[in-house]
C-alpha cells in the first residue's frame, strides 16, 4: 500500500505541474488580452484547485504511513537535510502552497472584473507553484530516476 501511495503521489505531482503550467499560461494570456473571464477559465482554475487538493490528500496519507514522515520526526532528523525535507519541509510547504492556491481561487471567484480574476489566479497559483517546486525532492523523485 505504501509503494502504491508513493507512485500515486508522484504521478499526481506530475499532473499537477502540467495543469498549473497550463492554467498559468491561460490566465496570463487572458490578462494580457483583457478577454472576458469565461466558464472555461473558471473550470481550468478549478481543475488546478482539485488537483492540488487531491495531491494534498494523498500526500497526507503517505505522510502518516511512510517511515520518512511523522514517525521520523526527531532532533536527529532535523540535523539531516533529506530527513528534514521529508519529515517537515515538504509537507509544511505543500500545505502552505495549497492554502495559497485555495485563497487565490476563492478571491478570484468573488472578484468583479475579469482582469482582477486573471491577476488573482496568476499571482496565487504562481506563488503556490513556486513553493511546490522548491520542496520537491528532485534527487529521489521516482519519475526522474
Please tell me about this protein's structure.
This protein has 145 residues and is mainly alpha-helical. It has one domain (2-140). It contains five helices and no strands. Helix 1 runs antiparallel to helix 2, helix 1 (2-33) runs antiparallel to helix 5 and helix 2 packs antiparallel against helix 4. The model has no long low-confidence stretch (mean pLDDT 89).
Largest sheet: none
Q: Which residue ranges are poorly predicted, with pLDDT under 50 across at least 5 consecutive positions?
A: none
Mean pLDDT: 89
Q: Quick one: how many beta strands?
A: 0
Output the radius of gyration.
17 Å
- The outline comes out as elongated
Measured between the Cα atoms of the first and last residue, the distance is: 21 Å
> Which secondary-structure class do the elements indicate?
mainly alpha
What number of structural domains do the residues give?
1
Number of helices: 5
Assign a percent range to the helix content. Answer: over 70%
The H-and-E topology, N to C, reads as HHHHH
**Beta-strand content estimate:** under 5%
Protein name: Cytochrome B
Transmembrane segments: 12-31, 43-65, 85-106, 118-138
Keywords: Membrane, Transmembrane, Transmembrane helix
Defining traits:
elongated; mainly alpha; 5 helices; Cytochrome B; 145 residues; membrane; transmembrane; transmembrane helix; single chain
Amino acid at each position: 500500500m505504501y509503494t502504491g501511495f508513493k507512485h500515486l503521489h508522484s504521478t499526481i505531482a506530475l499532473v499537477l505541474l502540467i495543469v498549473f503550467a497550463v492554467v498559468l499560461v491561460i490566465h496570463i494570456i487572458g490578462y494580457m488580452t483583457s478577454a472576458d473571464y469565461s466558464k472555461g477559465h473558471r473550470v481550468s482554475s478549478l481543475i488546478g484547485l482539485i488537483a492540488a487538493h487531491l495531491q494534498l490528500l494523498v500526500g497526507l496519507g503517505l505522510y502518516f504511513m511512510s517511515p520518512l514522515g511523522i514517525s521520523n520526526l526527531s532532533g536527529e532528523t532535523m540535523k539531516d537535510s533529506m530527513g528534514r525535507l521529508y519529515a517537515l519541509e515538504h509537507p509544511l510547504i505543500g500545505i502552505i502552497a495549497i492554502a495559497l492556491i485555495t485563497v487565490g481561487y476563492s478571491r478570484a471567484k468573488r472578484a468583479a472584473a475579469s482582469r482582477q480574476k486573471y491577476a488573482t489566479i496568476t499571482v496565487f497559483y504562481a506563488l503556490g507553484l513556486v513553493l511546490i517546486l522548491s520542496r520537491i525532492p528532485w534527487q529521489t523523485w521516482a519519475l526522474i530516476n
